[in-house]
Amino acid sequence: MRQGNDTPISEFLLLGFSDEPALQPLIFGLFLSMYLTTVLGNLLIILAVSSDPHLHTPMYFFLSNLSLVDICFTSTTVPKMLVNILTQSKVITYAGCITQMHFFILFAVLDDILLTVMAYDRFVAICHPLHYMVIMNPRFCGLLVLMSWIISGLNSLLQSVMVLQLSFCTDFEITHFFCEIKQVVQLACSDTFLNNMEMYFVTALLGGGPVAGILYSYSKIVSSICGISSSQGKYKAFSTCASHLSAVSLFYGSVLGVYFSSAATHSPHSSAAASVLYAVVTPMLNPFIYSLRNKDIKRALKRLYCMAGTKGTIILR
């Protein structure tokens, strides 16, 4: 795409959170620690699920996919921000910005859809327990994940291609720590009506649809749990949903927090700070949510730790 003076775009500027030099080491250390925690925590979940045969079930299959997506989701934004702080540069190339935006949308929507798929899994497990393994067979589970990738990929490709059609004139400053599509579109000097309509449509379809699916699943789950006679049975049924419900609340709560904070303050910097909740904090906390209250995951992690300790002892000998 080209500027008003017919000069090709080469770069954008990511303004980040603050221009204060004294705050840069603090921001770098904070985001580096959150990124490493995210990668390590989600990798442990993936290793625990793959190494323990008892966890080769649909629920943990979806969880390991969610962990993989969370690693990729955070990796699209944080490493570039850390490199910019180290090099004291705010520059991101035009191609790099479009690529980052593409993969950010891809993994954000994947997170959204996978949480919906996991809600459906809990719905089948609690409302149709006798047919659970028949309905949630390996082929169907693989198909659900494949369709999630296809839908997310087509959506991110469409949005990226539409941004590529825009022209940019003089303002290349993005008041964010990554190339957020809404801010990139706002910088364009060409007509952005179709881009805005497409973003609203996709938000309603891929945002409202999964939310409706999750609400429907949990309405049926609550109805089934209320029909259980024993209090122990109710607790056991609810405990299988507690971790997923916490993850859903965290994800959608942070997204709504970003929306309301930007609508209330009209400050791009406030929106950037709020975006940290769903772009960085949520992927970091998901492994803790699914491991602290889950005996199966804790047992698998303990076994993984013991195996690593045994191998370390053998090597030392």
Can you describe this structure?
- With 317 residues, the chain is mostly helical.
- Helix content is 77%, strand content 3%.
- The protein is built from eleven helices and three strands; from the N terminus they run βαααβαααβααααα.
- A three-stranded mixed β-sheet has the order 2-1-3.
- α1 runs antiparallel to α2.
- The longest helix has 35 residues.
- The radius of gyration is 22 Å and the shape is globular.
- The N and C termini lie far apart (62 Å).
- The N terminus is likely disordered.
Strands, helices and their partners?
Blueprint: E1 11-14, H1 24-51, H2 58-75, H3 78-87, E2 91-93, H4 94-127, H5 132-135, H6 138-164, E3 173-174, H7 181-186, H8 193-226, H9 231-265, H10 268-292, H11 295-316
Parallel strand pairs: 1-3
Antiparallel strand pairs: 1-2
Helix pairs in contact: 1-2, 1-3, 1-10, 1-11, 2-4, 2-10, 4-6, 4-8, 4-9, 6-8, 9-10
